[in-house]
Amino acid sequence: MEEEFKKLSKELEKIKYVNISDQDYWDAKELMSIFGYKNWEEFLKIINRSYKTIRKFGKVCDIYFKPIYKKVDSKRVIDNYNLGKVGLALTIMNCNSNNRNVAIAQCYIASKFDLMLFLEELYDIDYLIYNF
User: Residue ranges per domain, the chain?
Assistant: First the structure.
């Protein structure tokens, strides 16, 4: 398991990008193959479920799920997403954990990201203090 964790960790680090604001992000289409998804529409359902989670907390989703557009018949359509740390974490949590790489990635997220910072970013701090 430790070797698999290191291998997946290296794969995720290899496809990590940094934007001009010095924030990490991952390309959703690159992630889907790592997690064993062959069909973009299937993986997009997972992203949409994660996106809805962020919206329930009144957060601006484009920070965590930045849509990438392409032109189709003179219309702009979403072709991909760049996932910030929170977007990546929620997407991994929504993937099928029966897939070994997903289960390992869930452990990766737990070890790599500071859980308290993640919660502070996702929730208002007042919500955390008064509702636990």
Answer: 2-130
